[in-house]
Amino acid sequence: MSDAGVIHDIGYQRYDGPRLGRAAVLGALYQHGLRATFGLGRSAKSKIFPWGVAAIVLLVAVINAAVRSQTGTWLFDYYAFADSMSWLVIFFVAIVAPELVSRDLRSGVLPLYFSRPLRAADYVIAKVAALATAVWLLLGVPQFIMFLGGAFTTKTGMRGVWHEVGLLLPGWAYSVLWAFIFTSISLLIASLTGKRAFAAGGIVAVFLMTAPVVGVLSVLPSHTANDLAGLASPMSLISGVEAWLRGRNDLGINVGDFGVIYGIEAFCLITACLLLLLARYRKVASL
């Protein structure tokens, strides 16, 4: 029997085309993630929930714009709209965040992603950007519909339109803050398990089960505890940031003289979640 080896030509050829590099991979991963958040390119069943949530928030925006055009008063302003719809967005991210990251953990494709040239940081950036964009669109597009309703019914011409722009832009910025809070927390939780049901339950629990803590702290006899109660929940934390930035105490939460503490905690919470998410995927990439 001969010990000589035999080389078989099975038709593989070298790739001689352009190599697009990390930026193209990151962009493709972002585009895929954004499409996945709304079930695009997937079965009809995958589209039901995200588009159902989108339809509800759009309907609320249309009703709000119609009421304002008839009565001249809001049901919700741009800030209050984001606050009110945030409860729906909780369930949106609870379903979508596991689709973005838990599925990859369960299917074992991460070693393929983290083979060159994609890095763990690129993966995290793409996923965070995709979900943050989706959440912002979920709030920002209805806010734009509200803007159109106000701009087309103004009685002061371009002055009224510019006034409406001045109301819309801070409302959009507030929605960006909500988007990063939802995204950073939900993706961090979802990255800890490959089971989507566990990830979804954990996300809902973090957002909803911290609310009673705020209620308990807000009824304590200490005024300091009352003013700091909103720090115990992501939901009330962002409302506290709004109250601080707008200098108002009629928004359902009183921050007293601690408004800057709310701003610092919001920044630190988002930063900490993103850093932990990055550490999580650097650990996965090193396995």
Automatic annotation (TrEMBL):
Question: Transmembrane ranges?
Answer: 48-67, 79-102, 123-152, 172-190, 197-220, 260-279
Q: Any keyword Glycoprotein?
A: no
What domain of life? Bacteria
- What keyword terms does UniProt attach to this protein? Membrane, Transmembrane, Transmembrane helix
* Keyword field contains Transmembrane helix: yes
Identify this protein by name. Membrane protein
**Organism in which the protein naturally occurs:** Paractinoplanes toevensis
